[in-house]
Amino acid sequence: EIYSPPYLFKGARPTITSAPVVVNNGTVFTISTPNAPSITQVTLIKLSSTTHAFNQGQRFNRLSFTAGATSLTANLPASSDLLPSGFYLLFILNGSGIPSIGKMIQVVAPGPVGVGELMDQDLLDFMALRSPNPMRGGMAKIVFALSHSEIGRVEVLDVTGRRVKIVADGYFDAGREQTVTWDGTDARGQRVKSGLYWYRLTTPTLTRTGKLALLSY
């Protein structure tokens, strides 16, 4: 049995076309979206840091913002007590309470080291799935960012670790979000069976892995 939240049946979800990868406390940042006039909330949800039954890092922040024709300008709290440094999912919601797909963003407390320098200290290395999971047809959208420009590969594996398909293989620039997609097929273009799959990013300096469920019709 798969739970589908009610907001998925209220209409189209707003979309975030671009947003910064790293932001500082007490600053403003711009979110590009074609749905700007209809947005009523901008929120940040901190990634979980659980131990036993407790989420020690749970945070929810509703940001003040102003809306333009195609963008939102959001304000971040200056206090690190209200907005601790770390990785968050950024959401925008319209008047019907329908959220966008979350976009990964890193909050860094301001200090003597600038954001450009922080990008060289392994603070940007992440990978996430930015599409429905389980995947029912369509495309799986895999996003990642690197702190160092280097060669890398993104591939899909089955539960035994056997490679299903290479979805990206090349040189990736540091400091910006990269997006690749998987259409649910293998290297021969054949649709794969329903089940659990791994998506993996590998470079000479790191490996990141995530899990994806595929439901074939």
Describe this structure in words.
The chain is mainly β and 217 residues long. It folds into two domains: 113 residues, Sandwich (Immunoglobulin-like); 90 residues, Sandwich (Immunoglobulin-like), CATH 2.60.40.1930. The strands form five sheets. Strands 1-10-9-3-6 form a five-stranded mixed sheet, with no helix packed on it. The chain has a five-stranded mixed sheet with strand order 12-18-17-14-15, with no helix packed on it. Strand 4 and strand 5 form a beta hairpin. About 6% of the residues have low confidence.
* Reported CATH architecture of the largest domain: Sandwich
The strands making up the biggest β-sheet line up spatially as 1-10-9-3-6
Poorly predicted runs: 112-123
Instruction: Please write the string of helix (H) and strand (E) elements.
Output: EEEEEEEEEEHEEEEEEEE
Question: Globular, elongated, flat, extended or rod-shaped: what is the shape?
Answer: globular
Structural class: mainly beta
End-to-end C-alpha gap: 16 Å
By CATH, the topology of the largest domain is: Immunoglobulin-like
- The quaternary structure here is single chain
Backbone CA Rg: 18 Å
The number of domains: 2
Tally the beta strands.
Answer: 18
Question: How would you sum up the major sheet?
Answer: 5 strands, mixed
